[in-house]
């Protein structure tokens, strides 16, 4: 009987907390089931083996901030049919992207001392350097979403985002609307898929799953301006959107 050739998958991480990869490991038995249908040949965090590409898909966590990371990312792009960004750091620059490039040297010295020689350039999304075929959003990612997207890929389908906002999932969870009660929230423009975990836990939504299609940013900003200050609105948007067109071309302009 001819041996079934399973597609090769690589999982890489750049500058990050590795929380999204830990979320994948937490799948346990489900991860083993997926591995029966694919061949994870390069995953530093979970295995010792390391095979060369080409890969069907490279799943990448973190933002590339050093020259070596940038070169590795470009190599993965050349040797992968698909590139998937894993988590907010990879897809949106995440928490590392909050610090502006011009301010990095100041913070390096403040944290590591005057003699520290930084190698980081800037924290930007993977898409700043290469084409990204799909983003598995989240901070961290929802493990069930990872399974859904990989299963769609293995079934020969083009992975798709959920057609709802975080607001829909908030209603399913029985959460009172933060905006109705005068509290800032980016839920209306945020893609669903997180099960509204932050709001359910008492925190606001910063739309870490990315912007949903047809999001009405001007309408949301108009609501937020009646609830809080310009500085607070900017803080909400720049938590994950500082390097994204959604902020630079729309929200930032509306707040002038």
Automatic annotation (TrEMBL):
Pfam families: Oxidored_q6. One of its GO terms (molecular function) is oxidoreductase activity. The keyword Transport does not apply. This is NADH:ubiquinone oxidoreductase-like 20kDa subunit domain-containing protein. It comes from the Bacteria. Residues 17-152 form the NADH:ubiquinone oxidoreductase-like 20kDa subunit domain. Residues 17-51 form a coiled coil. InterPro entries: Hydrogenase_assoc-protein, NADH_UbQ_OxRdtase-like_20kDa, NiFe_Hase_small_N_sf. It comes from Candidatus Tagabacteria bacterium CG03_land_8_20_14_0_80_41_22.
């Amino acid at each position: 009987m001819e041996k079934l050739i399973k597609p090769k998958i690589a999982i890489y991480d750049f500058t990050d907390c590795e929380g999204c990869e830990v979320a994948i490991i937490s799948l346990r038995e489900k991860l083993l089931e997926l591995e029966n249908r694919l061949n994870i040949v390069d995953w530093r965090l979970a295995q010792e083996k390391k095979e060369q590409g080409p890969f069907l898909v490279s799943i990448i966590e973190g933002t590339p901030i050093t020259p070596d990371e940038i070169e590795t990312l470009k190599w993965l792009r050349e040797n992968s049919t698909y590139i998937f960004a894993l988590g907010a750091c990879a897809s949106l620059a995440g928490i590392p992207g909050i610090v502006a490039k011009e301010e990095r040297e100041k913070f390096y010295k403040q944290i590591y001392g005057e003699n520290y020689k930084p190698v980081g350039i800037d924290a930007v999304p993977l898409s700043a350097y290469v084409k990204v075929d799909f983003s598995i959003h989240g901070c961290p990612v929802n493990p069930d979403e990872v399974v859904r997207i990989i299963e769609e890929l293995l079934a020969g389908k083009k992975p798709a985002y959920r057609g709802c906002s975080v607001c829909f999932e908030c209603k399913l969870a029985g959460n009172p609307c933060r905006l109705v009660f005068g509290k800032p929230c980016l839920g209306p423009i945020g893609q669903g898929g997180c099960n509204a975990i932050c709001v359910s836990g008492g925190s606001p939504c910063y739309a870490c799953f990315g912007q949903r299609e047809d999001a009405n940013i001007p309408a949301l900003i108009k609501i937020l301006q009646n609830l809080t200050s310009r500085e607070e609105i900017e803080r909400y948007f720049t938590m994950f959107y500082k390097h994204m067109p959604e902020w630079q071309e729309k929200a930032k302009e509306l707040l002038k």
